[in-house]
Specification:
CATH topology of one domain: Spore Coat Polysaccharide Biosynthesis Protein SpsA, Chain A
Helix content: 25-40%
Distance between the termini: 34 Å
Bound molecules: uridine-5'-diphosphate, magnesium ion
Number of strands: 10
Low-confidence stretches: 1-5, 322-350, 369-440
Mean pLDDT: 77
Length: 440
């Protein structure tokens, strides 16, 4: 979206930056590094490991690896600051045009990275992984389902798996993110509300082999608290008075009503000095004024914080070439906007498992689509097929997708009828049929 921000890519910048937070993952890291190397052979990439205050020797391993491998950069927190802080640190250091985040515990499969990059190339700004067949114990998957359901309900974004650590971002997205606390769970929400196109694809997910999970029920509680922060920041970030003002006004009017009533009674000659209602009326008046005042202060803070701040820019300058300099060496092709012929392509590396093979053929799924949209989408797909008879199955055009901007100035709707992937049936916002496989 906002390609005018940040320095332009340099000649020696890698195309892909992998950002991998690691907290006590010493045993997994050597395997992970090997697998990434295998999966990305011949590609232009860097790996940024962020040691989030580990105490198990992760630091020593990463220090040595960074000395030996020019592609590896290792960051270290002096104590455990949490996954969000670790990801943010990685984002700050990433130089790639495409940023991939993944967990360090081998649950995410590096063989899936090319698929994520391909999905971005269809015109998304962020593609989130969906652990459709999640290999985690019940006590993790159940709270996670609940969390996803609540987040879907409150944000109206129809992703299945907000908290999947495996995601691909365009550079502009991470340049506009500033995550802290437990906000890594809400990255798709934060990006979507900034106007970025968000999609999702199902990805392979493995059982944890070494170490143990760092997130329990307690973290989910704090995750829900962060949901309030995110909702406030996304909906009212630029109009805090709309929250505080209306709340303050409501309390003030209630207090005013009570006090007017008491005044009228007093004028009738009745004593009101000992009535509890009087205290309530005065309390409501005072609270109303205070909360309204907080809203005004928040507006002023918003005014000053948005002034001249490139990180809050929500526009892009059109007509600037994406790459000011060509990238050296083998790399992925430049991201394209969706258009005829930009269908899914077969992966080039590795021999994926049966599960991967099945997941692989799924094109990214845009968020925010309703059932009606899906129905219309199917019709549009049929039309699209009629219009482009020369294209083979699996190579159908993917049109407009997240890029459709409503005419009435509302924020972008993720998917519109008659657009997006033609290789799968989507009903109730859920995929129901695997797509037809392109002949490889
Ligand atoms: N992680 C981190 N800091 C933390 C907790 C976790 O960097 O405070 C990393 C962790 O090392 C792993 C990723 O975040 O690479 C996901 O953590 P985990 O596998 O424990 O989460 P789960 O898969 O159980 O949800
Ligand atoms: Mg894990």
């Amino acid at each position: 979206m906002q390609r005018d921000q940040g320095p332009p890519p340099r000649r020696d910048d890698p195309y892909i930056s992998l950002v991998i937070p690691a907290y006590n993952e010493k045993e997994s890291l050597p395997h992970l590094f090997e697998r990434i190397r295998d999966a990305l052979q011949g590609k232009s990439y860097e790996i940024i490991f962020v040691d989030d205050g580990s105490t198990d020797g992760t630091e020593q391993y990463l220090r040595e690896l960074a000395m030996q491998e020019s592609r590896v950069k290792a960051l270290r927190f002096r104590r455990n600051f949490g996954k969000s802080a670790a990801l943010q640190a990685g984002f700050n250091e990433a130089r790639g045009e495409v940023i991939i985040t993944m967990d360090a515990d081998l649950q995410d499969d590096p063989q899936e990275i090319p698929r994520l990059v391909e999905a971005l190339d269809k015109g998304y700004d962020l593609v989130s992984g969906w652990r459709e067949k999640r290999n985690d114990p019940f006590n993790k998957t159940l709270p996670s389902e609940l969390f996803n359901a609540v987040t879907r309900l409150t944000t109206k974004i129809t992703l299945h798996d907000f908290n999947c650590g495996f995601k691909a971002y365009r550079r502009a997205v991470v340049q506009n993110l500033h995550i802290y606390g437990e906000q890594h769970r809400f990255i798709p929400v934060l990006a979507y509300w900034q106007g970025f196109g968000v999609g999702e694809i199902p990805l392979a997910h493995h059982r944890r082999k070494f170490g143990r999970s760092k997130f329990g029920m307690r973290r989910f509680l704090s995750g829900f608290l962060d949901l309030f922060t995110v909702l406030f920041l996304t909906r009212f970030r630029f109009k805090p008075l709309h929250v505080f003002g209306s709340m303050g006004l409501l309390l003030f009017l209630a207090g005013l009503g009570i006090n007017l009533y008491l005044t009228w009674i007093k004028l009738q000659g009745e004593a009101i000095g000992t009535r509890p209602l009087l205290s309530l009326g005065i309390l409501l008046l005072a609270m109303g004024i205070q909360i309204f005042g907080i809203g005004l202060l928040a507006e002023m803070i918003t005014l000053f914080s948005t002034r001249e701040s490139p990180s809050t820019r929500t526009y892009e300058v059109l007509g600037i070439p994406r790459h000011v300099a060509p990238f050296p060496g083998p790399r992925y092709h430049a991201p394209k906007r969706p258009g005829p012929g930009s269908g899914p392509k077969p992966s080039q590396s590795g021999t994926p498992s049966a599960q991967q093979q099945q997941l692989k053929e799924r094109p990214p799924r845009p968020v925010g689509q309703s059932q009606n949209q899906s129905q219309g989408q199917k019709q549009g797909q049929n039309q699209g097929q009629n219009q482009a008879p020369n294209q083979s199955q699996g190579q159908k055009p993917v049109q407009n997708q997240q890029r459709n901007r409503p005419q009435d100035g509302r924020r972008p709707v993720a998917a519109q009828p008659g657009t997006t992937d033609q290789n799968r049936t989507v009903e109730h916002g859920r995929p129901t049929q695997p797509p037809k496989t392109p002949q490889q």
